[in-house]
C-alpha cells in the first residue's frame, strides 16, 4: 500500500474514508446477528445434549400424513423391539386446571428423558426412573399462582372429560407435587405440568372421550423419545426406525443442525455476508467514482508529473483497504459488544442460560465480517475509478485550471 494512500485517506475529506460509517454499521449488524445466533444455538445444544440427547431419538407423528407411522401402542412396541433400544417414552398432551385454590390452567405433558428440568424445589426421581402415576412436576409460578407451598402435598386438579361430540365435564384427579422447576425454562411452552406417561395418556384419553387403552391403540402419542444403549447405536437404530415408517431423527442431529428459528438464523448469516459483500462492492464503486471525479484535477496533475494510472489505482486501492479494514474492526468490536449485551434478554426469552462466551460470534462469521468490507470496497474502487482515470490529463488539468 502506497504511503500516498495513508496521506490522502487521513488528510483529504474526498477520499474513500467517506465509506466508513456505512460499512461499520453493516459489519456490526452481521457480527451481532452471528453472536446472537451462536448464543441461542449453544444454549439449546447444551441443554438438550446435557439431558442425554446423544443417546436419544425423537419420534414424531403428523396427523393426516399417512406416510408417517402413528405412534400407537403396537407401533411403539415395534420401536422398542429394535435392537439397541433400551426404552421408549411416549408423550401425550392434555391440560390441568385449578380445582381448589388459584386460577391457573396448565398444559400437561409426559416427563420424558429429553426433559432436563431445572428443579428449584423438591426432587425428581433418581436416574432414569419415571414419575409415579400420582405424581406431578409444576413450574414454580404460573399465571399468578405460586406453587411453592404445594411441594410434597397431594392437590386436586381439574381436567376435562368428554361427554359427547362437542361437550365435556370437569373431573378431578389428585396428584402429589414432587418438584417445582424454574418457569423460565419453556422448552415445551410456558406453564407446563409434567406427568407420568400413564397419567398423561389417561388425561388425553378422557379429553377425547376414550378409554386409555383405546386412545393409545387408536390415536396414539404426538411424539416419543427413544433411548438407546450407546451413542454409536443411534445411527443404526434411527435407520431401522425410519425403515419401519417412523418419522425418526436423532436429538443430537436435530439440535446441531438447528432447524426452524436457528436454521433461519444460519441462512440469515449467509445472506448477511452476501449483503455485506455486495454492499461493499457497490459502495466502493460509487464512492470511488465520486472521489475520483471530485479529485480529477489533482489526479490530472499527478499524471502530468509522471504518475501513471496504475499508481493512481494503487492509491485508491490503499484507501479502500484502509477504509474497509477500519470499518471491519470497528464493526466487529461494536457488534460483539452488542451481542454480549443481548445475551441476558435472549436468555430470558429462551428460558435457557446463555453465557458471555456463548454470545461471541463464531470465528468463521467474525472472519467474514473482518475481510469482506475491505475486499468488497477494493473491488468496487477499481471498478468505479476505471472510466474516470482514462480521461486525458492535459485536457482535465486545463478544465480545472
Helix percentage range: 40-55%
Indicate the low-confidence ranges by residue numbers.
none
Q: Quick one: biggest sheet?
A: 6 strands, mixed, barrel
In N-to-C order, the SSE pattern is HHEHEEEEEEEEEEHHEHEHHHHHHH
Strands in their spatial order, largest beta sheet: 3-4-11-6-10-9
Total beta-strand segments: 13
Based on CA inertia axes, which overall geometry fits? elongated
Main location: membrane
Protein name: ABC transporter
Keywords: Cell membrane, Membrane, Signal, Transmembrane, Transmembrane helix
Transmembrane segments: 267-286, 320-344, 364-384
What does this entry look like structurally?
The protein is of the alpha+beta class. It has two domains: 3-47 and 260-399, no CATH class; 56-256, no CATH class. It is built from 13 helices and 13 strands. The protein has a six-stranded mixed beta barrel. It has a four-stranded antiparallel sheet with strand order 2-12-1-13. A two-stranded antiparallel sheet has the order 7-8. Keywords: Cell membrane, Membrane, Signal, Transmembrane, Transmembrane helix. The chain crosses the membrane at residues 267-286, 320-344, 364-384. Its main location: membrane. This is ABC transporter.
